[in-house]
């Protein structure tokens, strides 16, 4: 049987926390993907220009980065971690419910900034708690975790699609260029770079006819079981004020994982040293232990090199994941390919479908293949795919094939890198915050850089 009995027993011991973390990450995925498809309807709702509304992307992405960094400060207090997850998942439902009432782009940007903070906390805390719970067995569960964010990101646009406006949702007698081809504008909008839509002028004044509010309320309802699941976990562990703990605190789940690991380790002279080090860390009162402990500054250079190398890889790969779907559409509709807008619109969908499929395939594969081998396969496959795309610049089938394989190879880079890095660093939890923050920076910075380069290239042809 492919599923190991010891691993299954460990999963059963931590069943409720694990499912809760997975469900919270579904909430993260649901929130991260809805903004792009609904942006034109939100533009009508706020009576704002395309240039103004696209900066809502930046508000969300920047605060997501801040939230990812802040989330790491809660790593020593598991009760606080669970409370932050409860507030964050509930915030996402509230954001979905409030968005239809945001009639000004500034108010919408502030609401999306709050959502970004919640998403950042979810990203860091969920990854960190799964790593702490399962340690050397965390690779499989991290793959499942990131499948759920992909599933949420795939579901969100599907929910929104029936409610999107087919024509310009601001009814005006002075409808100008671009309003007759809204699908092309939707696919052309690149987050964090409003300049690429400056040549589209849509009406700002007039009555608004849009049903997109129903999509947000549906997503708010779908997300409601997530904070309920977090609350039930807190209640079951006796973390709700006034409730008596019957099964011990959440820390007991982590301790069970530590005991399971110690039982499987051979008895050697290094074991007491590891236990003593663990006790010292538990007694340390500083949340940012990995950055403020004296031992941190006396660590060997390899400790820093591992963090830097892992962060750089995730900076690039997660940046590509965030940028490629927008870039590939813009590339396909321009010369020399000049694909029809509807045909080119299948490319982003194909990319995200392959990312989700790759994460699903990685769940059973990661049980048999160690994280470093999966990471090696992913990076080699990604490099080979880029080479293939460069060699088939003018080939439409080549673009579709390359897009599919790129999504497959990029899909499991993050969970494999996180599991491998934490394994090398003996699961101290420090790497999770660094890697999640680096990935968030890559998503934001790479989109801006690509947008700037594309803008300069387009200007050179004008």
Automatic annotation (TrEMBL):
Pfam families per UniProt: MFS_1 (PF07690)
Region of interest called Disordered, as start-end residue ranges on this chain = 258-278
Q: Which residues cross the membrane?
A: 20-40, 80-99, 105-126, 138-159, 214-235, 301-324, 344-362, 374-393, 399-420, 432-453
Predominant location: membrane
The UniProt entry's GO CC annotations, sorted and at most eight, read: membrane
> What would be an example GO MF term here?
transmembrane transporter activity
Q: How does it sit in the membrane?
A: Multi-pass membrane protein
Tell where it localizes.
Membrane
User: What keyword terms does UniProt attach to this protein?
Assistant: Membrane, Transmembrane, Transmembrane helix
Q: Which PANTHER family match?
A: MAJOR FACILITATOR SUPERFAMILY DOMAIN-CONTAINING PROTEIN 4A, SODIUM-DEPENDENT GLUCOSE TRANSPORTER 1
Tell me the protein family, please. Belongs to the major facilitator superfamily.
List the protein's name. Major facilitator superfamily domain-containing protein 4A
- Organism equals Engystomops pustulosus
